[in-house]
Amino acid sequence: MPSTHTEIAIIGGGVIGNAIAYHLARQDRKTLVIEQAEIASEPAASWASAGGVRRQGRHPAEAQLASEAIKRWETLEQELAADLHYRQCGQLLLAENDAEAAQLLAYVHQQQAMGFSDVRLLNRQEALELVPGLNERVVAGSYSPADGQASPPRTTRAFALAAQRLGATYWTATASLALHTTASRVTGIHTTRGEVEADHIVLAAGAWSNELALTAGLRLPIRTLALQMLLSTPAQPGMLRPVIGALGRQLSLKQLDDDAFFIGGGWLGDAAPDRRAYTMRPSSIQGNWLTACELLPAVGEQSIARSWCGLEAQSIDDIPFIGAAPGLDGLTLALGFSGHGFAIAPAVGRAVADLINGQPTTELEGLSPVRMARFDPQQVAQFISTPPQ
Predict the structure, then answer these.
(1) 59 alpha-carbon distance from chain centroid
(2) Quick check: is 250 in a domain?
(3) How large is the angle between the packed helices 63-73 and 345-356, nearest 10 degrees?
């Protein structure tokens, strides 16, 4: 097979890989993206994701990236010259009893301490003004007005097209089979399209990253989640503007431009052994739907139109690994986003490009892969081998 040389090779054409490619291409770096399927195709997370664009509920290590990304989203459609179905409609997290309301007050203080100064506590009446029809148990809410929603497939493809307009090369339907190493440096990739030599490689292959990392002797503390999404039949227009959830519920609920309710929240299906497909869990479908109907009874006036899962890499501590791979020169990791990478993709793309170019990236310090060394090997082995419940 022929051999190809590039300055930077990115393995993975999801929203993270494409955002990185776009920012590198803006800096005139010769970039090749290698994607095993087509861009934003089933069952990848960037095809399936719920599409929340939020700062609320972030781990402190993600706070700087989240703040940067929220500002970028306001003009991202113009920047990428694409309709991303972005709406800055806010996010509302609800409490349904006095104990949860007390938790929510502490939560709001925590959000403000992370720099999200516009996040505020709402009483029941204020919450109902935002979302009429909430159940009678809602007593308070935490409202983040700058948050919102967008379409993950559209955003993923828009980043890819923008990167290509700037000169990035894309190989789709091309599997990356192994990483080549010389001493302690990753120097290339063995693919189904031939050998690739690269000055630098970015591993951003989501749920499929662990097997590739093992070919270079790196064991990643990640496992695969099959995260469920539900779509309802179209409801009355304008029933729900913000994205809503609740402290005591496993739920993310929004209304799309076509008026259907889009329901997520971390309910699980089961990934196939080869991670090319998934199986839905009837109990998850029923549980997720009933949870949405209980919080906003108007959902129950509709029916489920579609259900699906997307495969996502969950890290052992539920925050991503972004930065230089420990013990391997020439390899940068951007993976393990644990179901909440979509919203911060614009900032991650910029930060990884800066990191590769040798610029300071203090915003990535809390997400550095060097923390892998702190995890007990037995705990890592148990985490990897235990199916998500």
Answers:
(1) 14
(2) yes
(3) 110
Provide the domain limits for residue 198: 3-52+153-222+316-385
CATH number, domain containing residue 320:
3.50.50.60
Residue type, 303: S
Which of 132, 53, 98 shows the shortest CA–CA distance to 346?
A: 53
Q: Are 284 and 244 in contact (CB under 8 A)?
A: no
- Name residue, tokens 């990791």: 333
Q: From the first residue on, what is the mean pLDDT of each consecutive set of 10 residues in the chain (389 residues)?
A: 91 98 97 97 93 93 97 98 97 97 96 95 97 97 97 97 98 98 96 97 97 96 97 96 96 96 96 93 98 98 97 97 97 96 98 97 97 95 92
Task: Tell me if 242 sits within 8 A of 201, measured CB to CB.
Answer: no
Q: Within this chain, do residues 185 and 140 fall inside the same structural domain, yes or no? A: no
Q: What pLDDT was estimated at residue 292? A: 98
- Strand blocks (E) in 12-60: 31-34, 52-53
Q: DSSP string spanning 214-267? A: HTTT----EEEEEEEEEEEEE-STTS--SEEEETTS--EEEE-TTSEEEEESS-
Residue 1: the pLDDT is 64
Predicted TM-score (pTM) of the model is: 0.97
Structure tokens at 27: 């800096």
Residue 203 token pair: 């591993």
End-to-end CA distance of the chain: 43
Instruction: Tell me: do 267 and 303 sit in the same domain.
Output: yes
